[in-house]
TrEMBL record:
Cofactor(s) annotated in UniProt: pyridoxal 5'-phosphate
Protein name listed in UniProt: PLP-dependent transferase
One GO BP: carboxylic acid metabolic process
PANTHER family named in the record: DECARBOXYLASE, PUTATIVE (AFU_ORTHOLOGUE AFUA_2G04980)-RELATED (PTHR11999:SF165), GROUP II PYRIDOXAL-5-PHOSPHATE DECARBOXYLASE (PTHR11999)
Record GO terms (molecular function): carboxy-lyase activity; pyridoxal phosphate binding
Keywords, in A-Z order: Lyase, Pyridoxal phosphate
PTM annotation (N6-(pyridoxal phosphate)lysine): residues: 304
Gene3D superfamilies (alphabetical): Aspartate Aminotransferase, domain 1 (3.90.1150.10), Type I PLP-dependent aspartate aminotransferase-like (Major domain) (3.40.640.10)
GO cellular component assignments: cytoplasm
Source superkingdom: Eukaryota
Family to which this protein belongs: Belongs to the group II decarboxylase family.
Length: 488
């Protein structure tokens, strides 16, 4: 990045300098625009990481910001619209959101009319809260209906509604969930312990359909099936295509369950479903995102693979009336929309999501989709997958000193690489080196990886998510750093 040359992390000196210049007392008169600007540009910005400006920041799943998205975000700030109520005679902001959500649905090979409840959120965590809240509303009402009565969490509250519905446990049945799913369960009064692992012991990212059935059949229970698409450590997808989704759908319908998909970064793989794509090495990834249209709610992140600035996520669900029950901002006449009664009216965002006042986060998404289109985003994704697979092939080579995870002794290298999406999980073969691997890699400051644990041992992880990925230079730098680390 411009201020840091080739480095993806600021120098220690820049960090210390920035901390030493931070104001700790509120200045009574203020330092003024010019001094404040100078302080930000000279003290603070040089001490920020290069996650947006460098394609070699591989931590978490970070993404970046496409130039057009940065431009649009600046406009969103300058214009400071509050996209809360649909007011078509006053601003076009809600129409832009609606258009962005429709284009986004199409980018992801979804029919917008199948997902009448669609809205932008602050990120995938918020989307998981929204998706599970809709799920909770549905499964309790459905259990009550099957008992010949009526109950709604939105009106009665969780305690009274579950009592009326005869529910003693609400369970979220899943495989290797992202931590935010448990957080969402806690926020919604379901509790961390409601999240139950029903994975196949021989392939923990997959469902054990036997275990799933056993839990779904538990008396006096109501369930949400949560699909991890993809799993955050390995990038592996929980499901294997239309046949499995059809089975899950019919199980869910039998038991009055809801299907939620956490596809924060995996959803972008649906670009590979475009009929123009014939590359056979994508078959496994395509299978992982096929059939997701049969789910009830889907979480996506825009600040990850879509490469727009934070804070930007989205949620798609199948039922607008259900969402309006959960998220209705009741009895606020001053917030009513002038167009609420027209049949194709855009629903006011405040009645279908968590927030009341909200920023115009649709604008950078709208602008990026307009500027890059399907082909532009597909080309970025293909470069990201190609780089991740090159890195995976490098660490998998017997002479590298590393090993690619998960270990899959029965599979050929080609088969293992075909499972690689944009995440590469790996470790050093030498356990002493492996324990400090992430620190050593990141000490280079030329690339940045995240640490995690895998099967009880330390592991490191590349997430290739930046739009500026360059398969040739980036691969050389990665190989250089990994080579130096293993030789030291
Ligand atoms: C990143 C991520 C989340 C959380 O997303 P935020 O946007 O950070 O809230 C949830 N689920 C998965 C699978 C993720 O990768």
């Amino acid at each position: 990045m411009s201020t840091q040359g080739d480095l993806v992390l600021p120098s220690q000196a820049a960090l210390e300098h920035a901390r030493s210049t931070l104001l700790t007392d509120l200045p009574s008169d203020g330092i003024g625009y010019e001094q404040a600007q100078h302080h930000l540009e000279n003290d603070i910005v040089p001490a920020l990481n290069g996650s947006s400006k460098s394609s070699r920041y591989y931590g978490f799943v970070t993404g970046g910001s496409l130039p057009i998205a940065t431009f649009a975000d600046k406009l969103a700030v300058e214009e400071d619209q509050n996209v809360q109520v649909h007011l078509p005679n006053e601003t076009v902001a809600t129409n832009v959101e609606d258009a962005a959500l429709k284009m986004l649905s199409r980018l992801l090979e979804f029919e917008p009319s199948d997902w009448p409840h669609r809205t932008f959120t602050t990120g995938a965590t918020a989307s998981n809260v929204v998706g599970l809240a809709c799920g909770r509303e549905h499964i309790v009402a459905e259990a009550a209906r099957r008992r010949g009565t009526e109950a709604n969490v939105s009106d009665d509250g969780l305690l009274a509604a579950t009592q009326k519905a005869g529910i003693q446990t609400i369970q979220i049945l899943t495989t290797v969930p992202h931590s935010s799913l448990r957080k969402a369960a806690s926020i919604l009064g379901l509790g961390h312990n409601s999240v139950i692992d029903v994975s196949d012991p021989s392939a923990p990212h997959r469902f054990s359909h036997d275990l799933l059935q056993t839990h779904l059949s538990k008396p006096n229970s109501a369930s949400i099936i949560a699909i991890s698409a993809a799993e955050v450590n390995t990038g592996l997808f929980a499901t294997t295509g239309l046949a499995e989704l059809t089975t899950l759908r019919s199980l869910a319908d039998t038991h009055g369950a809801w299907i939620h998909v956490d596809a924060a970064f995996g959803l972008q793989a649906r670009l590979l479903l475009s009929p123009t794509i014939t590359n056979p090495s994508y078959t496994t990834l395509q299978a992982g995102v096929t059939g997701l249209h049969l789910a009830d709610s889907i979480t996506g992140d825009a600040h990850k693979m879509l490469n727009v600035p934070y804070d930007s996520g989205f949620i798609l669900t199948k039922s607008l009336p259900l969402a309006q029950r959960v998220f209705q901002n009741p009895s606020a006449a001053y917030l009513s929309s002038s167009a609420a009664s027209s049949p194709d009216a855009i629903p006011s965002p405040l009645h279908i999501g968590l927030e009341n006042s909200r920023r115009f986060r649709a604008l950078p998404i709208y602008a990026s989709l307009a500027a890059h289109g399907r082909a532009g985003y597909l080309s970025i994704l293909e470069k990201q997958i190609a780089l991740a697979r090159s890195i995976a092939a490098y660490v998998a080579a017997p002479s590298s000193g590393y090993e690619l995870l998960p270990l899959d002794p029965g599979a050929s290298l080609e088969e293992r690489l075909a499972c690689v999406y944009v995440i590469v999980l790996f470790r050093a073969k030498d356990e002493a080196l492996n324990e400090g691997l992430v620190e050593r890699v990141n000490a280079s400051r030329r690339i940045y990886v995240s640490g995690t644990r895998w099967e009880g041992r330390a592991a490191a992880r590349f997430a290739v998510a930046n739009w500026g990925v360059d398969g040739v230079t980036d691969l050389e730098v990665v190989k250089g750093v990994l080579g130096e680390v293993v030789e030291k």
